[in-house]
């Protein structure tokens, strides 16, 4: 990626050998609310929303799984989960932390191969990830291909894009929400109102539940 400021796409910001620093980039401190506090409040709140729409025990894809913050609790509740992440370090952290036969972490390219072999999931989560993807349409198409017709996509995202570059975060002006609506049917939208929410997220974040209808 190159924009007017000659900034180039640089996702290395997500590569952290330390689990503590990996957690902090997965769930950043916002408006003075720390990673640990958000982890303890946002995680169960978000899962309680998503589980209303996921069929018990059916395959879930955690798209942009990071260290497995959401995958782990779902695996503990009996869901088989495939975590997808471009970062080798994030996938390794997730695998180490979850350590369960119902979980595996793979690259998007391996997911493409599995889709080609017939893999279809019943649900996908994409939490704080699509805002950061270089080619938004490619990622949304991949998610669409990975779902059964009737499958559910649960998204948490910001109103603006934040692409990692060698000169900081860049907003390319694309809309995650509008792109998703081209491929999926919106069935519910929630404001971000986790317990003790950071003000910056209350003002700018949302949760959307989509269904694949075709």
How would you briefly describe this protein structure?
The protein is of the alpha/beta class and 214 residues long. The protein has helices at residues 19-26, 35-50, 71-76, 88-98, 108-116, 136-146, 176-183, 199-204; strands spanning 60-63, 81-84, 103-106, 121-127, 147-158, 163-165, 168-170, 185-191, 205-211. It has a single domain, classed as 3-Layer(aba) Sandwich (Rossmann fold).
**Secondary-structure element order, N to C:** HHEHEHEHEHEEEHEHE
Let me know the largest β-sheet: 7 strands, mixed
How many strand segments? 9
CATH topology, what is it called? Rossmann fold
Shape: globular
> How many separate domains?
1
Distance between the termini: 31 Å
Q: Note the beta-strand portion.
A: 15-25%
Percent helix range = 25-40%
CATH homology superfamily: Vaccinia Virus protein VP39
Helical run tally: 8
- How does CATH name the architecture? 3-Layer(aba) Sandwich
**Top-tier CATH class:** Alpha Beta
Q: Using the CA coordinates, give the radius of gyration.
A: 16 Å
Low-confidence stretches: none
Q: What structural class results from the helix and strand content?
A: alpha/beta
Describe this structure in words.
- This protein is an alpha/beta fold.
- It has one domain (11-211): Rossmann fold (3-Layer(aba) Sandwich), CATH 3.40.50.150.
- It contains 8 helices and 9 strands.
- It has helices at 19-26, 35-50, 71-76, 88-98, 108-116, 136-146, 176-183, 199-204, and strands at residues 60-63, 81-84, 103-106, 121-127, 147-158, 163-165, 168-170, 185-191, 205-211.
- The strands form 2 sheets. A 7-stranded mixed β-sheet has the order 3-2-1-4-5-9-8, with helices on both faces. A two-stranded antiparallel ribbon has the order 6-7.
- Strand 4, helix 6 and strand 5 (147-158) form a beta-alpha-beta unit.
- The longest helix has 16 residues, at 35-50.
- The two termini are 31 Å apart.
